[in-house]
Amino acid sequence: MADLGVLTLLPTLIVFALAILTHRPIESLIAGSLVGLVILNGTGFVGGFAEASIRVMTDADVAWVILVCGFMGSLIGILIRTGSTSSFTRLMSTRVRSEKTALIATWGLGILMFVDDYLNSLAVASAMRSLTDKYKVSREKLAYVVDSTAAPISVIIPFSTWGVFFSGLIVANGIAPEGQGFATYISAIPYMLYAWVAVLMVPFVIFGAIPAIGPMKAAQLRAHTTGEMVPPDAAHIEAANQSITPNPNVKPRVSMFIVPMTVLVLATLYFDKDFLVGIYITLGGTAVYILATRMLSMNDTFDTIVDGFKMMVEPLGVLVAAFILKDVNDALGLAPYVVSMMEPLLTPKSLPAVIFASMAIVSFMTGSNWGVFVIVLPIVTALANSLGADIVLVIGATLSASTFGSHACFYSDATVLTAQASGCTPFQHAITQIPYALIAAAISVAGYLLIAYL
Q1: Domain locations in the chain as residue ranges
Q2: pLDDT tens digits for 373-387?
């Protein structure tokens, strides 16, 4: 890990500057990574890029993300091809009569898909975009509602992939004894303020108590006045989403949507919250059922599985580029540098608010939530112990910061996948969502200060 001072921030600042100028995430991420590698390796930056790429592509967590996202695309493709998704949308349309109720239904469905933020982002947006189009909801607003029940709801409902992962880290860092990580995680849930605020803000935004702000206002105006729900520059994403169409020879059944989604949630919960196992069981079982009932031919079934995986190639490209940037930032020591800059502000009472603010910045800059938590948890634990701060409150603040990064950064996994499934670019989703994320972050900082000083 290098000790480069303020130069540590340069690669990520370049990523943001290029993203704002070009609106193209992959190129921006690669450019920032190359700058970081020049800082680290000088003229050997090309070899450094090759090594970083290999580290990322052979990392078990990255492989898990690629398989999960790819095969989730395959499952969604199968549900589209059998007409199940459109059948579910028609069922929902009998109960939805307006823009507001369509968005509330989206929010409620997102809460039900609590087991994993990837499941939430991909399944809910895919199921609801046709229905929200009917009521002239911009894809950016759909993406905001979906994303606000992705990572945030998976954090505060502990029976999820987030709960399992972070419970294990709590034990691994000696915060709780073996077998008590889950209980410690649950005790920190009331203090995960950002996740609570992000989820509970959504109805206020839907009903106008919190008005459309800035880019979101412009997106909604475009949808209402021109009927263009898909934003400019997102036609290729919409084309990918529409590349699989229902087979006209198959009678649509809403059960073919509800049953696989239920199986996916239950299988994931049963197999130690392993979402990849849940997808394999659900996709395999669905394919066997389709072939056994001759709903689709074998060629049609497996062509659709492959096409669904292909549908996720672009967002996976963004995620791999983001993982390479994270690898470079880890070598530069970005997270410890930001923490060290905040240390002069630390007191036992201010620690939760400062930790939330500093880790929110790191998580936002790196687009990483789980990875940042792995790096900073030992540092945060040491700070809490040395200052005598409430460790449960500090865990809640750190997890809130991870949630903010997942929710707000334009190249975080949740943002990228939500944008793909909703039919807008990651930048369009992030720029319209960031005002609401910042409101939730400000409320969270105020909450941590109130808890500390009252």
Answers
A1: 60-323+332-454
A2: 777 777 788 788 888
